[in-house]
Design a protein that fits this description.
about 450 residues; Amino acid/polyamine transporter I; about 0% strand; mainly alpha
């Protein structure tokens, strides 16, 4: 593969102070992923896995832990880079880096879409069923668009308050679920292998298919690497933080899922799969816990949709400014502000249209989640391969090769992520494949058949 190394930056250039500790990074990662990450997935994941969500969340954790190690090692090489896009571009090849960025860009576009789908479903199915899904989707997409046009962004303080509320609600759920199980079934209700293995329904093919959806639980862990330039001892702490964030998410999320499965074992009896965990909360804590969980899920999804929409709009602006996309439209900023008005409107329209289209097909949340994973797992595969190339193949000065950590581990991570990616549903692979093919055609034309370096996507805009 072509060497994508870059010149060593000037050491006299201004640098941010390294003030963040390991635990600052871990906290930041938990904020990004959120302690309720598996909750919105519960009903759909139970259906896809035939009641084995606890199993698939742990299988997905295995792949994510290995990938987290690769992210941490690449962050040590490129501490100012902070994304799969630059790790693949610098670690493997600039053209492959562009394609990794193109795949990642799809994820940015889908963030407001998947959250709009969840909120609209929750409001339509559980709170105001008289208002059609399409109307709710229009309202949510419009609110997100208007707030982003006004330049309103979620603050760090708001995120901390929301995180605190999540832990409070989840804490009440855990206590009440344990109490419910113990008083209804005794110790056998609390301790069972049924959530991990039920011989009546276990199917290895469905486990792999469902794992590709359950991996949504971990999306966002790689955001820890964006702070590599601000953290003390980045070679050690970024790697440790990414691994610890994945481990916390898998263990804590797995415990929530385990209790949910024990409280309500048969997914076929849920009134609605997308909002199934709210019914579990109702069973153990009545209407108060039902509504508390519903409120924090809607707030979390709304915040994620808001920041995701703005991030996607700013990425479009960066691509327009650099002439990756037509500058007149995508490179436009509203006079007197830094708001990419046209891009925010485009994202809003795409969000509404995509939500309505997926809802008309059926299983909208499932399809949106798997399509998001299409780009994410391509990026994960790229980072694992870049890690193998940089540490096992290239002769790095002063680095003594280790077969296990330099070759076997990243290749196993690549294979595991590839297996999960391959088991995405047909719609995700078709739509994602079309998107990837467009990126491949574009970069081939722009680089005269891959003979020149591609224009880079500036992910710092997001």
């Amino acid at each position: 593969m072509a060497d994508a190394s870059v010149s060593i930056p000037n050491t006299s250039a201004p640098r941010l102070k390294r003030v963040l500790t390991l635990w600052d990074l871990v906290f930041y990662g938990i904020v990004l992923i959120q302690p309720i990450a598996p909750v919105p997935l519960f009903g759909v994941a139970q259906k896809l896995s035939d009641g084995h969500f606890a199993t698939i969340i742990l299988v997905a954790m295995f792949a994510m832990l290995i990938t987290a190690v690769s992210y941490g090692r690449m962050a040590a090489l490129y501490p100012a880079a902070g994304s799969a896009y630059t790790y693949v571009g610098r670690g493997l090849n600039l053209h492959l880096g562009f394609l990794a960025g193109w795949a990642m860009f799809l994820d940015y576009l889908l963030q407001p879409l998947i959250n709009t789908v969840w909120i609209s479903t929750a409001l339509h199915e559980r709170y105001v069923p008289g208002i059609p899904f399409a109307v709710w989707a229009a309202i949510i997409a419009a609110i997100i668009t208007l707030l982003n046009l006004r330049g309103i962004r979620s603050s760090a303080r708001a995120n901390k308050v929301l995180l605190f509320l999540m832990f409070v609600v989840v804490g009440f759920f855990i206590v009440l679920a344990v109490r419910y199980l113990f008083y209804s079934e005794g110790w056998s209700g609390l301790f069972s292998i049924q959530p991990f293995y039920d011989p009546k329904t276990f199917n290895s093919h469905r486990i792999w298919t469902a794992t590709s959806f359950a991996a949504l639980t971990y999306i966002g862990f790689d955001g820890v690497t964006t702070l590599a330039e601000d953290v003390e001892n980045p070679k050690r702490n970024v790697l440790l933080a990414t691994v610890l964030v994945c481990l916390f998410t898998g263990v804590f999320g797995g415990f929530e899922v385990y209790l949910g499965q024990r409280v309500w074992p048969d997914w076929r009896t849920f009134p609605d799969l997308v909002t199934a965990f709210m019914d579990i909360c109702s069973r153990v804590g009545g209407p108060i816990l039902f509504n508390a969980m519903g409120v924090i899920l809607i707030l979390a999804a709304f915040g994620s949709g808001l920041t995701g929409g703005l991030g996607a709009a700013r990425l479009l602006f960066g691509m327009g400014r650099d002439n990756v996309l037509p500058r007149k439209v995508f490179g436009y900023l509203s006079p007197g502000s830094s708001t990419p008005t046209y891009n925010i409107l485009i994202i809003g329209v795409l969000t509404f249209a995509g939500a309505v289209m997926l809802n008309s097909i059926g299983n909208a949340y499932e399809h949106a989640g798997e399509l998001l994973n299409f780009g994410a797992f391509l990026a994960f595969m790229g980072v694992n391969l870049a890690t193998f190339w940089q540490f096992a193949v290239k002769a790095r000065p002063g680095h003594e090769r280790n077969l296990l950590t330099d070759a076997i581990l990243p290749l196993v991570g690549f294979a595991f992520c590839a297996l999960i990616w391959w088991n995405l549903n047909g719609l995700a692979k078709t739509v994602g494949g079309i998107w990837f093919a467009l990126g491949l055609i574009y970069v081939a034309i722009k680089t005269r058949g891959f003979r020149t370096a591609p224009v880079m996507i500036d992910f710092s805009e997001s």
